[in-house]
Please model this.
Amino acid sequence: MNSSSSILEHRSRRFPRAYGVLIASFVVVGVTVVASLVRPIGPTATETQDRNPAASTLLAPLTGPGAAIPAVGSIAQIDHSIRAWTTNLAANPKDFISATNLATLYHARGRLTGNLDDQARALEAARTAAAIAPNQTAASSLEATILYTLHDFGASLAVADRLYRANPADLGALATRADTELELGQMAAARADYDTLAARASGPAIDIRLARLAYLSGDAARSLTLAIAARDAATADPGTDLGFYHYAVGEYARLTGDGEMARRSYTAAIALRPADFGSLLGLGKVQASTGDLAGAIATLEQAAAIVPQPETLTLLGDLHALMGDATGAADAYATVGAIRTLSSIEGLVFDRQLLLFDLDHGAATSAS
Model:
């Protein structure tokens, strides 16, 4: 049993649910071309990417409101393709394309379900592909993206920096380098890389990155303006995941104090992707802030049933406590503890959320 399934089973003993999946994928399944997330001003594709479009550079890692999701797919399609490429790789262990596609597909499935074990499989497949063909860059680009998703920002930065220095035309590597610099607090370096990226490419994935940079730089109003511009641009582009951009507007509206815009945007995102656990979490926060505690609990239960993240569970427990439901609060807090112990992957990805839980609930120590 994988770790994410263990968490869900822990919760289902008290809260039976029909667990959904996020209806958006990071890739076009199989050998279909991965949708580009920026419109290059000049040619940027490498020879390798032209020959192997299914492994083309992924320009927007997904971790909160600083990234974008392209393309669509389904769990059934992804599972079918995984079986096919696994068979190919088993028949020919030197099959670079099969290993790269497996990395892409596992990464996509992990994005759909929130299952971090899939990201571990994706990382293993990407490194297998890179070992088979070390002179090809597609697998290493995937490795950098997957490491970013797993919050191994230092390792992601090292890979992306190496790729970009070797090929300054690789905007995917530049984007990932800037993203990781921002996560690591290297603001000046991130700003310089985003400036370079914006000078060479355009599109909603660029604007949404600049929105995150603006917010973290203290310009909340500009962050919301840029997020709205990104959403509007995405509306006119059938190749983007519009649900994500509604979510991003919701996040920046909430963070800048516009609760009504946040509510509308989260609701629009959920209408497009009913199992969008990020938008459900955001909507639950808005409901809680306006005093609708019962509504917030119901919304957060939906989010936790899809992906039981510590942040969702912590807020859910706190609301149960405010409502006088000690059993509900204890269950939610216990599930946070279960996440901490199930695997090292959860500990890495949710380290910030777990530390905040400890700080807010009296469990933090100097060793936390």
Q: What stands out?
A: The mean pLDDT is 77. The longest strand covers residues 39-40. The beta strands are 39-40, 201-202. The CA atoms of residues 304 and 312 lie 6 Å apart.
